[in-house]
């Protein structure tokens, strides 16, 4: 064993440094589902800044200190409070916010979000088959996040309403941009800060994994916070 270690010490050092980089500095996250349509597609691989909110002990989830505060509109990766699965959603409400949803409209601290029609399309949703989609530009309360696109599926039975909730300290409400096809805080509950992994920054690469696997080069390097 000692001989094998000596012979492969360069490779072992690379693996160690690679592990430190991925768990403490930056990571990449493949998109496996439709929950963030229309902004993220299955087959996208996004760059995640792990230093956006916390500094963690390398190769662990132990938080050593905070580097920033999640903001409304941030796209973040986190461990599900329900089962630990890694998810990617958008921060909708931060500690102290009072948020509710009425017929898909978000109301944050008493200020209704506004919506502008972007277009419509089609999406295949499991056994339901191909359904009509409606894409909107959502502008949350003044002074919150920049406008971003969301998608609705009018034919899906989804949670389009919830009563006012005041977000407790160190917790966050997360919603998918594909509002009627996302297992988010409406189903898994609020997300504690300790479960945050990092802030998604841009698309590194993309391929049409549901079609011909051709690269979608127009998405390479795409800023997730660019004009909507």
TrEMBL record:
Keywords from the UniProt entry: Hydrolase, Protease
Catalytic residues identified in the record: 35, 89
Protein name: Signal peptidase I
Keyword presence, Protease: yes
Database matches in Pfam families: Peptidase_S26
GO CC annotations, alphabetized: membrane
Recorded family membership: Belongs to the peptidase S26 family.
Species the sequence originates in: Rugamonas fusca
GO molecular function, one term: serine-type endopeptidase activity
Domain Peptidase S26: 9-202
PANTHER family for this protein: CHLOROPLAST PROCESSING PEPTIDASE, SIGNAL PEPTIDASE I
Primary enzyme class: hydrolase
EC number, UniProt record: 3.4.21.89
NCBIfam families per the UniProt record, alphabetical: sigpep_I_bact (TIGR02227)
Listed InterPro entries: LexA/Signal_pep-like_sf (IPR036286), Pept_S26A_signal_pept_1 (IPR000223), Pept_S26A_signal_pept_1_CS (IPR019758), Pept_S26A_signal_pept_1_Lys-AS (IPR019757), Peptidase_S26 (IPR019533)
UniProt keyword Ribosomal protein present: no
Localization terms from the record: Membrane
Chemical reaction(s) catalysed: Cleavage of hydrophobic, N-terminal signal or leader sequences from secreted and periplasmic proteins
Membrane topology: Single-pass type II membrane protein
One of the GO biological process terms: signal peptide processing
